[in-house]
Amino acid sequence: MIEIPSDLHPDLVPLAFLLGDWTGAGVAEFPGAEKCNFGQEASFRHDGRDFLEYTSHSWVLDDEGEKVRPLETETGYWRIDSERQVEVVMIRDQGVAEVWYGELADQKPQVDLATDAIARTASADEYSGGKRLYGYVKGELLWVGEKSTPQVPLRPYMSAQLKKTVDPSQWAKDLGDLPDDGIAFFK
Q: What pTM did the predictor assign?
């Protein structure tokens, strides 16, 4: 179920499916880079203004699913206009800043984005463009990313399946109205 917070800016209601903390795993593979499984924690938050704040941390996983080392960190801001056009500004720890444009699909919680502008530091790997698709499917956030370099045409390089995570302290707040004898809970 998609919840819409009462203090969410009205323009952001179509993106409410992204809100929350998400955790999961995926696969990364691109020519010239190590193929790996990765874990990811992503967060979409709001503060009442007309944008969502986005952060993502990913790390390489070993064969047992344990963290090996950091893979990538991203931060950014998402906006949507009345025509369902989405714009994202994103900074990645690899020395890349991107402006993405796309749109929210008609009648479903899915965003399709493509890079419009890219700036790289001198130490950043070559990168010439990308596409991303985010979709909310059966309560999970699925995404796939494509990228290109001057040597490699646009192709998929990362994808993940994320589940919404719940903070147990929120559950404790909801328990305040229950009787404290412990028995009533099981009746």
A: 0.87
Three-state DSSP class for 103?
Answer: strand
Please, which residues have CB within 8 angstroms of residue 123's CB and are 6 or more apart in sequence?
95
How far is Cα 15 from Cα 51, in angstroms, rounded to an integer?
A: 10
What does the alpha-carbon distance between residue 130 and residue 128 come to, in Å, rounded to a whole number?
A: 7
Say whether 9 sits in a helix, a strand or coil. Answer: coil
Instruction: Give CA–CA dist 140/162, Å, rounded.
Output: 6
pLDDT in tens, the chain (187 residues): 788 999 999 999 999 999 999 999 999 999 988 899 999 999 999 999 999 999 999 999 999 999 999 999 999 999 999 999 999 999 999 999 999 999 999 999 999 999 999 999 999 999 999 999 999 999 999 999 999 999 999 999 999 999 999 866 665 555 555 555 555 444 4
